Automatic annotation (TrEMBL):
GO MF term list: transaminase activity
Domain Aminotransferase class I/classII large: 48-375
Lineage: Bacteria, Pseudomonadati, Pseudomonadota, Alphaproteobacteria, Hyphomicrobiales
Organism this protein belongs to: Rhizobium indigoferae
Record-given protein name: PLP-dependent aminotransferase family protein
Record flagged with keyword Transferase: yes
Length: 382
């Protein structure tokens, strides 16, 4: 899926107009698809309001979510799992982040060790700092976690859990093949390491290998958020736990905290979208737009060394060896694109590769994206 495209061509380009604000490309949101999203969301909201009794729905705490919303969650995850889990294993939350804080608190603890990919989602560094646990980085290659490196980390650091993004890893875009997935779960099993699998980027690509949760359901906490495929503000994320007893034990009443809970209105809208096919229609539109934007990347940055995939929201790009990483990032900004240096993702020590990550989805439309890509191209081929 990943493509490395040739060596840099020296081809001077004009800096982008400086009168406009830089195009925001540090984040990796899904692109806007208002023609599909707006009518789907409106009708889902309307239907759910008509179908439910507001007082019974909003006026109470449903700690683990309404049964119908847990059933919808169990259905939603069948986009990746071959069989719908028992709804008793499903937790509804407003975000993957909140699920992660509860899981890390319960499974890793304040003085424990969480193994992470050597470059990963930077929020994990904030959680570790806040909660006091330690992070240990595991080497990556083009298929993600390197088995020998993971085994060594298990032997030396005895982590309680591994946080991993096997599909379109953030930031490297690595995609773990089936054999590699089997190796990783075998090592986790051998060393008694729980797996926190974040599959948030897995709904746009098709024909993916199965999640780790499918290979090792008894040790994997499987997270499927909607922020990268439907909308960041839907605020709906699903967790499938290994056992039916885990949700109550780890979340409510086990945690005694409610901050992670989904707002019932959001759960209801998500349920409606899952059942009426709206979720699939939105995801399909986001997929098409993501593919179109990745084509623009390939065309504009032809000659640069890129790691990307047609349905990936971000691009992992080599910076010319004769340029300082921070200078290159500044140059992109000056020319009109805000991009993120690799150092942002290096949260457990080691050295950062000479790369940047940029997202294609936050630019409001293709014209704005083109302006951002031209700025990056201008910095690269100057
Ligand atoms: C890997 C990864 N997981 C989770 C999230 C956030 O998801 P949520 O909004 O559901 O917390 C992000 C957002 O950038 C992400 O990159």
């Amino acid at each position: 899926m990943n493509t490395a495209i040739g060596t840099p061509q020296i081809e001077p380009q004009k800096p982008a107009s400086s009168s406009l604000p830089p195009v925001p490309m540090t984040g990796n949101l899904p692109p806007r698809v208002p023609d599909v999203f707006d009518p789907e969301y409106r009708s889902a909201m309307k239907n759910v309001l008509e179908a439910r009794q507001p007082m019974d729905w909003i006026g109470v705490h449903q700690f683990l979510g309404f049964p119908e919303d847990r059933v919808a969650g169990a259905k939603f995850v069948t986009r990746r799992l071959s069989v719908a889990p028992d709804p008793d294993r499903v937790v509804l939350s407003h975000s993957t982040q909140a699920i992660l804080t509860v899981l890390c608190g319960a499974l890793v603890g304040t003085s424990g060790v969480l193994a992470v990919e050597e470059l990963t989602y930077p929020a994990m560094a904030k959680f570790a700092k806040q909660m006091g646990f330690n992070l240990v980085g595991v080497k990556l290659d083009e298929e993600g976690i390197v088995p020998d490196a993971f085994e060594k980390v298990c032997e030396q650091h005895k982590p309680q859990a591994l946080y991993t993004l096997p599909t379109l890893q953030n930031p490297t875009t690595a995609l773990m093949g089936l054999e590699r997935r089997k190796e990783i779960v075998a090592i986790a099993r051998k060393h008694g390491v729980a797996i926190l699998e974040d599959d948030i980027y897995a709904l746009l690509p098709k024909d993916l290998p199965p999640p780790l949760a499918e290979l090792a359901p008894e040790i994997t906490y499987y997270m499927l958020g909607t922020a990268k495929s439907i909308g960041a503000g839907l605020k709906a994320a699903y967790l499938v736990t290994p056992k039916e007893t885990d949700p109550a034990r780890l979340f409510w009443p086990g945690s005694g905290m409610t901050y992670w809970m989904i707002a019932p209105a959001n759960a209801g809208v998500a349920t409606e979208l899952i059942h009426n096919g709206g979720a699939d229609r939105i995801i399909s539109a986001v997929r098409d737009e993501t593919r179109a934007r990745q084509k623009m990347v390939a065309q504009t940055l032809q000659g640069a060394s890129l790691r990307c995939a047609p349905e990936c929201l971000h691009v992992w790009m080599d910076v010319p060896a004769n340029r300082e990483l921070s200078d290159f990032v500044e140059d992109c900004k000056r020319r009109g694109a805000e991009v993120g240096p690799a150092t942002t993702f290096l949260i457990a020590g080691g050295s950062a590769p000479h790369r940047i990550r940029f997202g294609t989805g936050k630019a409001r439309d293709r014209e704005v994206l083109q302006r951002g890509l031209d700025a990056i191209s201008g910095a690269f081929f100057r």
